[in-house]
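In the lab's daily routine, each protein ends up as an entry in a very long ledger. A line of letters takes care of the sequence, but it says nothing directly about the fold. The three-dimensional part falls to structure tokens, numbers that each stand for a local backbone shape. The outcome of that step, for a single protein, is printed below.
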Amino acid sequence: MTPRPHPARRPGGAIRDIAGEGILLAAGARAILLQVADPSVARGVAEHSDFASRPLDRLEGTLGYIYAVVFGSPAEVARARRIVGRAHAPVRSAVPAADGSAPAYSAYDPELQLWVAATVYQSAITMFELCFGPLPEESADRIHRQYAVLGTALQVPEELWPADRAAFRVYWDERIATLEPTADARRVARTLLDPRDGPPAIRAVMPFVALVTAGLLPPRIRAGFGMRWDARLERRYARLLAPVLAVYRVLPRAVREAPRSVITRRYRRRSPG
């Protein structure tokens, strides 16, 4: 029997059909490294974040926010907005970095928030289509529009989100062509992909995560982070990822979305401040 297509690949496919898929977590480190490839984001993380000691907590907080604004009630969206607003309030500097590597910045900057939302959206689509195949045009257009909520729930004006997928590709290509990972960004990458602390189970899977992350990154950004890549690593990446995706595709949806259920429960226990 031919398996039924994924709901996102049927007529009416929408963001809720994609955003809860656990396999998207495999692109989580990719999204983070793309975010910090922007010098202002990297500086904010370096100067105002406990990322170095709690990278998984930061990732969980980001995922909790995504799940709240995509799947939550209006009250849950408002609560998530307050949580993020409280975290963003101190993340700012009125002066450029002393070494000239980054300008003045604020976590409330709509352009920076747009970039963060764009990395989440583009990484999600990249991972989803690797696993399940290309989205139909109609669904892809709808999902593109709906992913704007990651930014517009905060300080991103609706008109700042690229109007369609073609406009998004132009925006994306321009950003990728001009980003230069700084020393701060490379430190974040080392902390994320080669953690010295944390549960043994997490440390055990990080070589796989590091390989997948390097394989998913645009070549120019991968090189900017100093990640080695060659034909041998490309083959290893393909050999490791293919069976993972094959097994994941046949899991029941409840199992595939179990991480969302766990993270959502934990996020609901956070104080909004």
User: Anything to note?
Assistant: The mean pLDDT is 91. Residues 110-132 form the longest helix (23 residues). The chain has 15 helices and two strands.
